[in-house]
Amino acid sequence: MGLTFCNVHFTKQPQRVVYVSGELMKSLKLSGKKNIRLRLGKDAIPAMIKPIKRAGKHLFLASGVKSAIKIPKSGGIYLRNLQNDEVQLGPLVGVLSDGPASASQPFGSRTGFIKQLLREGSNKCYIFAFMPRDIDWQQEQINGYFLNASGKFERKMVPLPDVVYNRLPSRRAETSPYINQLRERFGRKKIPYFNWSFFNKSDVYRLLENDGAANRFVPETHSNPSTEQMRDMLDRHHFVYYKPSAGSLGHGIYRLTYLPKKGYFARYRKSGKNVLLRFTSFDSLMRMLRGRHGQSLQNYVVQQGIRLIEIDGCPIDFRFHMHKNGSNQWVVVGIGAKKAGRGSVTTHLKNGGALLTPQQALGRVFGARSDEVLQRAKTTAVKLAESLEIQHRHLLGEIGFDLGIDQDEDIWMFEANAKPGRSIFRHPSLRAEGKASIEHILEHCLYLSKFRRRDDL
């Protein structure tokens, strides 16, 4: 199965005829053939082929072909030569998200990122965005959002795609019966669908427990801990993090501390401000937590606190943005160092944290040895991604790890995100990494759809 790049043109003839330049006929091994099957996404039609004299690799599609198979646009695209005289255009890549359906921002706060994906991807594939309600399962087609030459969205009907990149925005949307059915339907049609869903913290810790080599990077963690486990963790570690398993952006997180002669302390964020409370007994601390959260504490995890490296007395952790590349290997694409705000429970930027490059942060702590420490952290991140993928049952193409380095230079993994935010790429020194992140998503889509360039075959 060969892959070649060609220029697609549209003609006004109504028949189902495909005109192929001599060089392209040779590339696709179609010399002497009278008919082919032309495929786009999950749809295919029979068509007559006629050779034409034209220098270069060109494909002219009569309007009967264009409308029958719903080719979205002319221009450069890959052709994949399949068995039985079948030729596939593409790949056809769908980006699944959701939003308020406003004309200018159909995907809400993700619209800018989706436009960037579509802009970069249009040179490599037919790429569109869509919402769950845009799928017509009876006709097996999608009313997708394409980006036109002036950078505006336009709707076009296309067949079901070769691959789906899932960027649904909320856990609630993702756990609905309709979305579960949607994923199963794509699976039955053998359409690769990555990233399957948001991770729950407790699921990630449980998956990594099965791999001793990866689990040593995870602090001691217990899901839905009993009162006795909480007391034991505080007695042994003196400080712990208590956080919701399905939380994000630092919401609902407590840093709990036990100082034998001073009592118990709870640090958390409320109404945009940092709060610090002192309790004389463990029981009074637990009463406060139960009073604030009640039954929802069953969805909390407790995790050993780690004494992280610091700058100006403020702890630092690192967001490692991981991607699968076009050869299906995990690579570190971007790293942001997050410095906690004064008195903050977490390093989240919305809670007063500051973003630095890893070189800035590690240089201040380790000096000349910073490159060596960073390399060790990168190797660890790749190991963790590989382990998580082996233990996880579904396709992963992107992971955000929150890693920390303690004062003994040990590396720890606090959280893994299946749909990491992109705030680190706003840093002026990390914009190139943001562009590389987009390129890796597109290259992985080409890999999953089997549109691999010859050097990848």
UniProtKB/TrEMBL annotation:
Gene Ontology molecular function terms on file: ATP binding; metal ion binding
InterPro entries on file: ATP-grasp, YheC/D
Pfam families: ATPgrasp_YheCD
Keywords assigned by UniProt, alphabetized: ATP-binding, Nucleotide-binding
Domain ATP-grasp, residue spans: 370-446
Entry protein name: ATP-grasp domain-containing protein
Organism: Paenibacillus borealis
